[in-house]
Design goal:
The protein is mostly helical. The protein has one domain. The protein has a 3-stranded antiparallel beta sheet with strand order 1-3-2. A hairpin with a 2-residue loop joins strand 2 and strand 3. Helix 1 runs parallel beside helix 9.
């Protein structure tokens, strides 16, 4: 099973000028994007993904009868019935910097089924948010932070050139 890697998908209109600066001031660029990757917007995203939604919403809406039978046949997919949350899935969320994008990543094998593209209906019913929806809610803030970072780098470069 693969991990979840959700890009922030900052508009190319925003990232193109930033890429131009990268050619001239690679360390400045990395520092500014590093600030964004550790910044307030990323922390807001991670806080929402870390959130425990509370008790299971009943009745459980299984994706299929086969899934329901498998759960009971494997003793809660090996975790016991009822399955108890450990918090490991939420704690596995983190941000990574990848060129012009900030990735919100979770390497837990269950993440895709709980908060990713393959989210099971009963996880949605319980209140788990998908990473795609959470990142989309903050996209404007990510773009604003990228523009501010670009401005800061340009300003520093101009001061040095004088």
């Amino acid at each position: 099973m693969a991990s979840i890697r959700q890009e922030t998908l900052i508009s190319p209109d925003v990232t193109a000028p930033i890429r131009e600066i990268r050619q001239y001031a690679r360390s400045e660029y990395r520092r500014e994007f590093g600030k964004i990757a550790r910044g307030k917007t990323v922390q807001k995203v991670l806080r929402r993904l870390y959130r425990d939604p509370g008790p299971v919403h009943r009745p459980i809406r299984w994706t299929s009868e086969r899934q329901r039978r498998a759960y009971f046949a494997t003793n809660g997919f090996g975790r016991g019935i009822p399955t108890r949350r450990t918090g490991e899935l939420q704690r596995a969320w983190h941000a990574e910097l990848d060129g012009d994008q900030i990735l919100i990543v979770n390497n837990d094998p269950a993440a895709s089924y709980v908060q990713g593209d393959d989210q099971q209906q009963f996880h949605a019913d319980t209140g788990y948010e998908t990473v795609q929806n959470v990142v989309a809610d903050y996209l404007v803030e990510f773009e604003d932070a990228a523009i501010d970072g670009w401005y800061d780098v340009v300003t520093r470069l101009e001061k040095r050139a004088r």
